[in-house]
Write a structure and sequence with these properties.
This protein has about 500 residues and is α/β, with parallel strands linked by helices. It has a domain of about 100 residues: GMP Synthetase, Chain A, domain 3 (2-Layer Sandwich). It contains 14 helices and 27 strands. An 8-stranded mixed β-sheet has the order 2-1-10-9-11-12-13-14, with helices on both faces. Strand 9, helix 6 and strand 10 form a beta-alpha-beta unit.
């Protein structure tokens, strides 16, 4: 039997005894399965009336809410590929992305670049265009790269827009319930929240969404909605952990079966804390790129291999040295994914980094131990070379984030006449914090040469709601400041 298309799945959800049950909830918004079926079908007809054809891109630049889900399912039902864009791009950057993607239609609030057909959410009119049942785009999603700087790139997933083996398998892989309840605390323009909310709806699970992440509100929703599954980034986990213990323990989390975390390296101390709080059986980590390569590790496995992101089969992962030779166990090199990793996506606006054997690199560094478990070090572009020694920003940030008064930290390399680069720490705090105290704290956790030599304290968030940081932009900004004569506080 042919795998069902997304419109066939929505039509099935939208009829029968469960049609009036809630499919999606956001603050002040509720959509039943029947509503989702009817509204996405109407919007699909509107898209076709605007000239959308099979395999076109339909750009969606909407905030978290029911309209985002209606729009993506409408694009699928029209045979198109949803192209998910951030909602607050400046006009120039939005125009660049639109030029890159070449979408047939942009669904969004506000103005669209010249030459692009613009559809305001809810402006579905009474379009009577015929939309054949069972249309399915060759590629089911296209998203912007979360860590891009300058001109962005698009990552187009090659899975077809049918509920086939690959998408079905992802639901089981990440332990998502079928016919259950999940919480989405992340922004839908980011790959993981979009991926998992879409899979949840395809699996008949109710989606409880947040317009913006709030640590205590997430706990309240887990209790009130009897949430079974949630995907978080480490930044969210840390913000929850930073709540007073009496607040964390105020909420009943017994319904929660799985906390899936991904998108950034999780400091070992933070993961240990969550395992001790909820139990290892409820913690599940995925190491993956939007491009599709992935490993995973359970909480129980992690306790035996603290810091690992999972067992790395040799046919899937190879660690390569700078001269292109495979690294022996416990030697850091660049991580390359084999198998069919390079065929599961394509870029628009960039070229995939493939070696001579067709293996794919996402730019991460790490090593595989003698038992075959992968450990991450950093991204190659984030590594700081100080006097010939490699310093991994993620390791320094993890040490800083253990300080109880530090909300977040980002580490960059700045010029040093003597050693080439020095470690500079940008720390986010809620209150004034003596740098001498921070420096003494870090020195108890890191070798001296890894400790920051200069600091700055900020109160604004350093990462996006998706847990991403534009490290290169932060570093470039500070290089300009140095040229203008600004000086940072020295550690000692």
């Amino acid at each position: 039997m042919t795998d069902p298309s997304f419109d066939q799945i929505m039509a099935a959800h939208g009829s029968g005894p469960a049609a009036d049950e809630t499919a999606i909830t956001y603050p002040g918004e509720r959509l039943s399965w029947a509503d989702l079926d009817a509204r996405s079908a109407a919007r699909a007809r509107r898209l076709v009336s605007l000239g959308v054809e099979p395999d076109d891109l339909v750009a969606i630049a909407l905030p978290n809410g029911v309209e985002h889900h209606v729009s993506s399912f409408a694009a699928w039902r029209a045979g198109a590929t949803p192209c998910i864009l951030p909602t607050k791009l400046p006009g120039h950057e939005l125009a660049q992305v639109i030029e890159l993607a070449g979408p047939r239609v942009l669904i969004g609030v506000g103005e669209a670049p010249d030459g692009v057909t613009h559809l305001e959410p809810g402006d579905d009119g009474s379009a009577k265009a015929d939309v054949p049942a069972g249309l399915a785009a060759a590629h089911w999603k296209a998203v912007t790269s979360g860590g891009s700087t300058g001109r962005p790139k698009l990552i187009v997933d090659h899975a077809p827009a049918r509920f086939g083996e690959r998408l079905n398998g992802l639901i089981d892989l990440v332990r998502m319930p079928r016919g259950g309840v999940i919480l989405n605390p992340g922004p839908l323009y980011h790959n993981a929240p979009f991926l998992f909310t879409s899979l949840a709806l395809l699996a008949g699970s109710r989606v409880i969404g947040m317009h913006r992440f709030d640590a205590e509100e997430a706990l309240r929703l887990i209790e009130a909605e009897r949430i079974e599954w949630v995907c978080m980034v480490p930044t969210m986990m840390q913000r929850i952990w930073n709540l007073p213990e009496e607040v964390r323990r105020r909420y009943d989390l017994s319904s929660l079966q799985c906390v899936c975390h991904m998108a950034a390296a999780c400091p070992a101390w933070l993961k240990q804390a969550w395992i001790e709080w909820l139990g290892p059986e409820r913690i599940f980590e995925v190491y993956a790129g939007t491009e599709g390569a992935a490993l995973f590790i359970t909480g129980e496995e992690w306790l035996a291999k603290p810091g690992s992101v999972g067992k790395a089969p040799p046919e899937l992962v190879t660690i390569m040295s700078e001269d292109g030779a495979p690294c022996p166990p416990n030697v850091i090199g660049e991580i390359f994914f084999g198998g069919d990793a390079g065929t599961r996506f394509h870029y628009i606006g960039a070229d995939a980094k493939l070696d001579g054997a067709g293996r794919l690199s996402l730019g991460d560094l790490g090593f595989i131990d003698e038992d075959g478990y992968l450990f991450l070090s950093d991204r190659r572009s984030d590594m700081i070379i100080r006097g010939g020694a490699n310093i991994y920003a993620a390791e320094v940030e993890a040490a800083l984030s253990e300080h109880p008064d530090i909300v977040d930290a980002v580490v960059v390399g700045l010029p040093c006449d003597d050693l080439g680069q020095r470690v500079h720490a940008i720390v986010q705090t809620a209150d004034a914090l003596p740098i001498g105290e921070v420096d003494a704290f870090v020195q108890t956790r890191l070798a001296k040469y890894k400790c920051p030599e200069s600091y700055e304290v900020v109160t604004e968030a350093l990462r996006s709601d998706a847990g991403k940081v534009r490290r290169t932009a932060l570093r470039d900004e500070r290089l300009i400041w140095l040229q203008e004569g600004k000086r940072f506080q020295l550690a000692r």
